[in-house]
Amino acid sequence: MTPPVRMILGSALLFAAAVVPGLGQNTGAKVVPKLQPIAETKLLMEGLANPNFRGLERNLSKNPIDDQTWTYARGQALLIAECANLLMLRPPKGTQSQPTWFQETMDLRTQATRLAQSIAKKDLASAKAGMQNLARSCNRCHQSFRVPVDIVPFQPVPPPVRKI
Ligand code: HEC
């Protein structure tokens, strides 16, 4: 290669590295992804927290509880714990209420993780107590943030109204 050609090629590569994102950055430097909340809190409640809580009630009410159901229930508890991680990305706007939010989300994660551990051991008494603790955690946050939703586990379903 003649020196001018080498120079042109060299500057073309430099230019490409400057305008193409990612190019020239792959030098072993650590990429730190920025976590961003996408869905609304309400959607996490309706799509993740509540359906998994209700699913746990159903699975832990089965008699007997087979292996597949225990496995499934453990997954439901872990998804609620993971939901707590997602909630941590979405503190309310006022900086004053943020410490409360973080405390409530950490508590949700702790209770849901403990419940998953009881379920992994197939310890039904401990899992049922864990459901009560989990519901308390849900309700504590709802009360702190004035959400009129009361979570009561294992409520007997009222019989359907009979039309006469
Ligand atoms: C860290 C706080 C926090 C925790 C913990 C929490 N929630 Fe919520 N929840 C909220 C907020 C805030 C809303 C209101 C969202 C909105 O309407 O914008 C809500 C709303 C709800 C709703 C109503 C959704 C609707 O359709 O309006 C349900 C149901 C619900 N939560 C279930 C649960 C369950 C079940 C748990 C526990 C497994 C739980 N939540 C734990 C903060 C929390």
Helices, strands, pairings?
Elements lengths: L2 H17 L21 H20 L6 H22 L9 H23 L3 H21 L20
Helix pairs in contact: 2-3, 2-5, 3-4, 4-5
This protein binds heme C.
Describe the structure concisely.
Helix content is 63%, strand content 0%. It is mainly alpha-helical and 164 residues long. The chain has a domain at 41-144: Up-down Bundle (Four Helix Bundle (Hemerythrin (Met), subunit A)).
Q: Which molecules are bound in this entry? A: heme C
The CATH architecture designation of the domain at 41-144 is: Up-down Bundle
* Overall 3D shape: globular
**What sequence of helices (H) and strands (E) makes up the elements?**
HHHHH
Q: Please tell me how large the radius of gyration is.
A: 25 Å
Which CATH top level class of the domain at 41-144 fits?
Mainly Alpha
The percent range for helix content is 55-70%
Q: What is the tally of beta strands?
A: 0
- How many helix segments? 5
